Amino acid sequence: MPSSDALLDAALEPVVGSKTAGALKKAFGIRTVGDLLAHYPRRYARRGELTAINDVPLNENVTIVAEVLDVRERPMRARKGSILEVRITDGRSGGIMTLTFFNQAWRAKDLKAGVRGIFAGKVGAYRGALQLAHPDYELFDGEDERDSADKDAAKWAMQPIPIYPATSTLASWQIAKVMEIVLATVRAGAELPDPVPADVRNERKLLSLNEAILKIHQPETDADWQKARDTLRFQEAFVLQATLLDQRAKAKAQAATPRAPKAGGYLEQLDARLPFMLTEDQLATGAEIAEDLQSTHPMNRLVQGEVGSGKTLVALRAMLQVADSGGQAALLAPTEVLAAQHLRSITNMLGPDLSATLMPTLITGQLPAAAKRQALLRTVSGQARIVIGTHALLSDKVEFFDLGLVVVDEQHRFGVEQRQALRVKTELTPHVLVLTATPIPRTVAMTVFGDLDVSVIAGLPAGRAGITSHAVALAEHPSWITRVWERVEEELVAGRQAFVVCPAIDAAGAPEDDLDALVNDEVELDTDEAKPEKASVESVAALLREHPQLGRRRIAELHGRMSSDDKDAVMQAFSAGDIDLIVATTVIEVGVDVPNASTMVVMDADRFGVSQLHQLRGRVGRGGVPGLALFVTHAQPGTTAYERVEAVASTTDGFELARIDLELRSEGNVLGTSQSGGRSSLRLLRAARDGDVIMDARDAAAEILASDPGFAGHPVLAQAISRRLSESERDFLDKN
After folding, report:
1. 315: which of 118, 139, 460, 575 lies 20 to 30 Å off by Cα?
2. Which segment, 72-86, 298-312, 568-582, is predicted with the most confidence on average?
3. What CA–CA distance (Å, rounded) separates 541 from 585?
């Protein structure tokens, strides 16, 4: 076993053997002793408290505590051999499950009536009864202790048993046995390096790292693991915030070229031709950005704003300030549809004269070879002062003459590595402006974007007519779908246009290539009801073309499998009014701006997240025409899925929806690794719940950093920061 200071980084294979180490790596990505120790129990069971069997979900892997009720062996009907059926119970009325073993009659020697244990496997159903086929199990020892003094029996029965995140090939108790091998070294005196300084720990009455690790994995009482969890949760927040604050300080210490506006320059020319006044929030955010851009240190600012609040205009004004200084700006968009939309809207805002001078240029992966060569030449020569593109901008083939500003639209679609790939395309670090139309609660912003300064655009431009939203509950009122299509036709009769959004492209349920797997917005679908087939672009478009009224309308399809030219052609025709209705996937979720579009129908709305529904709704009601959003769902009222849809229908306040979203979503889905290159892969910490802990940890880390830049005087903390960053990099490489 390595020395204590190297213990956490020690490879697992020499400690537990190659077979076990390989299984842990494959199942959970666990490579080191530190990785294993940070694989915390997800809950605790007790020998004396049995799991409610009727509550376990079908078709999922479960770990339960139960008691053997009876055992019987019977011959198989169609072949030689026998089936051993073991009924287990939770001691409650009807709480019975059958364990089935084929040709393993010898198990009856251990699985006797009255024996308790932990049983794990995938829950199935056979003739209406719950069943585990060939489950793993571990029977409780300690029958002697249970038969001794009552006090010892009570202690034995109520001692918490850690239940670990497990897989079908690696059971919870197998992980516990591996954990014991490592914990034995800790018990023998190996001192785990604690990144939280003793004075910070003592002030908060926290345990040492050694104590916390031992008590979370092998508690004797509930108080043990609760105190350990509090300690480790603070430690996680502390290291995370120290990492973010350190990165922020290092970024601010880098050199950047100041980008000052010029009297009579491009920025003033744009402002002079705008047909409207900027909102107060746009002016305030613009002033913060303008000041940042004139600094000799790089700007790193996040602008979060409501759907349609004018973030693109704020970003364009920043680009023109950089152009005034002779520099270039790159705008990184998540999809080709959005990149093309940005090019059109920026060109329109600039007008013909400024556009001819600044030459906004598009670079995407699907550009024809000749167009791509011309775009690359314009970019490297500096002719193109504004370059807009998708991930193609990150290619080594894309070179800039003087890249002064990187604008990242919809940050949650990109990791920090992608942002960094653009930063290195210039000698001095460019300024960075990150945009998101997903309102972010403060604790989440601190956890995910803690290395960025934050600006908020809450107000909407004048002249917006607003959006009315309704949840259409087909489970209760299946006939309402008829009224949905009637309502769409009424809007089209009035000369307006409409979107219909589906979660899949075709009947096979294939998701949208670009956006459906949105990590920040994954949805835990309810499994307690049979769901109809996913609505798809192909099936819904076919249905509408056969509709008595809508069938006469000009209907087009739009999804990620279409070529870049085809997608662009559909959007341009829609913008020009040559298409009445688009049936699309979430490829139209962000950035699409057609003022005449009044109606948004989202099919199977419960298959989308709160933030995604809010984004989709933002595609209508963008001009003087009132918007209408109809969220069609088969979810049963009262389920989480329906509550999610109803929540979006109840308010258009994105910040209120962000709060509701945190309450409704499972904690594990609040943050996704793609948001920040892996650093949001939280273990015990939850931004939705632990705001006070995060704030406290950030204050403590900031106080130390102020007196000890770079944490040179805190080597254990510096090592923990380095370890976390290397984990993030490793996770990123694994995913790519």
Report:
1. 575
2. 568-582
3. 12
